[in-house]
């Protein structure tokens, strides 16, 4: 395990973790989906979680094999995980279902109070789990997200970002300047959610296929339906960002992603969905997004807020004017 993650752990965080009574914290089930994951990164992630502990708070690690074809992930993996004495479980999917459904199948086989979704190519810091569980214990409508750094793909060195804020805005509150940071959306590589809260918001939309827009859907649900997304800087992990996908999502992977995002837009984005449709040059009229009546009924039953509220209160820096006559760009091109 890399020692570089140690550098990210603020002394105040060390003191904070020491004050926690781990015997009082809820238990966690780690859900780890994978498809043809490299043996070394998979086993590295499992050992990292178990070494960081606390062992008694980890109810189980559920590895969800999304129909891998690598030989070492068949019988050799089944034999190897027996050394963990039942703490690590292996769930096999009979056919390729994709990341979203693999996560849901994993969640169906958990028994802990809190579900922690974790990619199978991560490294966690000692003391990463307790702050996540503590925050959810305080408010189980919070989705707790660790501060995430990067593992270099070539050298496996940890690249320290400090405050993780790639591709989404981070707003810092003053209540606990080093502990609590709100975020409009989240990275999917790791997050913790109480099982009760996950069930309350309908988990992931079961109509989402393979991969894409599940992070946005869950983020909108949580914020608009009475919850919060919080980055917990006293929880640190590092994630291996690949240069490209090491496997195929099928011939129509791009269309699948668009279809997923359209489902999310139709259910949650209200009038703002038109910004997305204008951007991609498509609409539900020419893409079959499936039946979304159950998702709309869920939103109504939870009495969720409007997307306008989300933009104004959660993501105020987002430029999204509704009353726009036209959109485009102005350019001046000179060819020498």
UniProtKB/TrEMBL annotation:
Residue span(s) of domain Glycosyltransferase 2-like: 29-201
Keyword Lipid metabolism attributed: no
A molecular-function term among this protein's GO annotations: polypeptide N-acetylgalactosaminyltransferase activity
Pfam families: Glycos_transf_2
Keywords on record: Disulfide bond
Record-level GO cellular component terms: Golgi apparatus
SUPFAM superfamilies: Nucleotide-diphospho-sugar transferases
Keyword field contains Disulfide bond: yes
Biological process per Gene Ontology, one example term: protein O-linked glycosylation
InterPro entries: Glyco_trans_2-like (IPR001173), Nucleotide-diphossugar_trans (IPR029044)
Name assigned to this protein: Glycosyltransferase 2-like domain-containing protein
Originating species: Elysia chlorotica
Lineage, uppermost ranks: Eukaryota, Metazoa, Spiralia, Lophotrochozoa, Mollusca
